[in-house]
Design a protein that fits this description.
Blueprint (H helix, E strand, L loop, with lengths): L1 E5 L7 H6 L4 E3 L5 H4 L5 E6 L5 H12 L5 E5 L4 H9 L4 E4 L4 H12 L7 H14 L15 H11 L4 H8 L3 H15 L4 H8 L10
Parallel strand pairs: 1-2, 1-3, 3-4, 4-5
Helix pairs in contact: 7-9, 7-10, 8-9
Length: about 210
């Protein structure tokens, strides 16, 4: 899978190269077609120096290419996150995100999910549980989970990050990720947002075949 970074400087930051050694860079969204050669990839859109009024249009233009778009902002904010996700982005993170986090985002996006910083995820989940009326919980699918997987799923439902889950359950973050992979497969959800909504009995709609 290719990784193309659209950034005004036209060159890769060191952390981007560490995350994806074969990544490429381009100055403008209009150059995406010329800068890519494979059938599949992710467009990483650096909006740190882009005027707020132009960001939605840039995301829409990038998304029109057909590859998933991850937006990288200098000061990630809740309202902007939801706005740009609504414009076609599938990820939203800090422009200085660490290489390990970039790889985690890429994995989520590659599998059809969407990603945002843990603190914004918590607010999103809290908002969803407030504005969407819930019925009595439906349990059958949860019977497939082990007791520890259920504990992890319940933590996610409350908006906890992997680090917070690891601390609460006295396990490593690697173990949390392994549990989440198993949970996603068993419950048929593609990311932690859908898992949280499902745990709170809020309907989700997937485009995954």
């Amino acid at each position: 899978m290719e990784h193309l970074f659209i950034t005004p400087a036209g060159r890769l930051r060191e952390r981007w190269k560490q995350a994806f050694p074969g990544a490429r860079a381009a100055v403008a969204v209009a150059e995406i077609g010329e800068a890519t050669s494979g059938p599949r990839g992710i467009v990483w859109l650096d909006i740190a120096s882009l005027p707020p009024a132009e960001r939605s249009a840039e995301v829409q233009a990038a998304a029109a290419f057909g590859w998933p778009v991850v937006v990288m902002a200098a000061t990630p904010g809740e309202s902007e996150a939801f706005q740009l996700l609504n414009q076609g982005a599938v990820g939203y993170c800090h422009v200085k995100a660490a290489p390990e986090q970039l790889r985690e985002i890429a994995l989520v996006v590659e599998h059809g999910g969407f990603w945002m910083p843990p603190e914004l995820m918590q607010r999103f989940i809290a908002l969803s549980t407030r504005v969407v009326p819930t019925e009595a919980p439906v349990e059958p699918e949860l019977n497939e989970l082990t007791s520890r997987e259920l504990m992890v799923a319940e933590q996610v439902a409350h908006g906890a990050s992997n680090r917070e889950i690891a601390a609460a359950l006295d396990i490593t973050e690697r173990t949390v990720k392994a549990h989440l992979s198993a949970i996603f497969e068993k419950l048929g959800v593609r990311d932690r947002v859908q898992l949280a909504l499902a745990m709170n009995n809020i309907p989700t709609y997937s485009t995954v075949n």
